[in-house]
Amino acid sequence: MASGDFCSPGEGVEILQQVCSKQLPPCNLSEEDLLQNPHFSRLLLSLSQHVDESGLSLSLAKEQAQAWKKVRLHKTAWLRLEILQRIIQELLVDYYVKTQDTKLTSEDKKFHETLEQRLLVTELTQLLGPSSQERVMPPLLGLEKADLLELMPPSEDFVWMRARLPLEVEEQLKKKCFTLLCYHDPSSDSDSETLKAAKVWKLAEVLVGEKQQCQDAKSQQKEQIVLLEKKSATYSQVLLRCLALLQRLLQEHRLKTQSELDRINAQYLEIKCSAMILKLRMEELKILSDTYTAEKVEVHRLIRGTVWRGPFAYKNRTWRSPDRS
């Protein structure tokens, strides 16, 4: 195996910092793992040139970025149509609410009625689906598009309504933008309409900046979580090593310490036993000294001497009192 195939300690740290932490998806690897598997470190370096942070190949990541770009374009177009549709529906709802409280002018009534009629006919036409030649199933309620087109408002009213519609939509959108601005910045509620319009003009940039800050914070949080997991794994390994070392120390030194402790305990018990024996002997001597005085001992000695001479010794001996000389 060539020396160039091995991973030195400095290279291991560099691979961990540049490749494993940034270019490749988060992986729980340590420098010791790279040192024990030298070819694996080379494999990581080669893979980092062909994959991105998510683990996709560079070509596939490029295709995915283009696909997402198309999706965003279609989503933007759909959102524009959806917003316009909802704004028109809200215009009609506001019109019916106003008819209950205030008196509207004839132009307002004509505008909203023409708009509603055109919207309903358009929606019903879409519900019918394709033309009769392309349709497989019979039409809904037996209606054809020609039947619905007869319900269209007059062309003059439609042209007049269409010319006024952008102004109404713009006014409704302006109200919504001001509402969104006041929600985002409540202090803007007391500003003038011109100042609000200027703030709304920059609101998109502000929201994009805040979104970018949130994304940066999320990425930093993700990096911190990965770092925390690595530190937790490292600390766990260190703790396990410490526990193994403590266990080994206990196994090696516990018997020696226990034998020394047993020897000390045996010496202590031996000394304590000797002290107890001496104390008992002292108590015994104290009892004897209190029981037998010097006079009693002398009398007992005379009695013992007389008893040992035999019964015939009293014939030729006169008894003397111990007090006589």
From TrEMBL:
Pfam family, one: HAUS4
Cellular-component GO terms for this entry: HAUS complex
GO biological process: centrosome cycle; spindle assembly
Top-rank lineage group of the source organism: Eukaryota
Single GO MF descriptor: microtubule minus-end binding
Protein name according to UniProt: HAUS augmin like complex subunit 4
InterPro entries: HAUS4, HAUS4_met
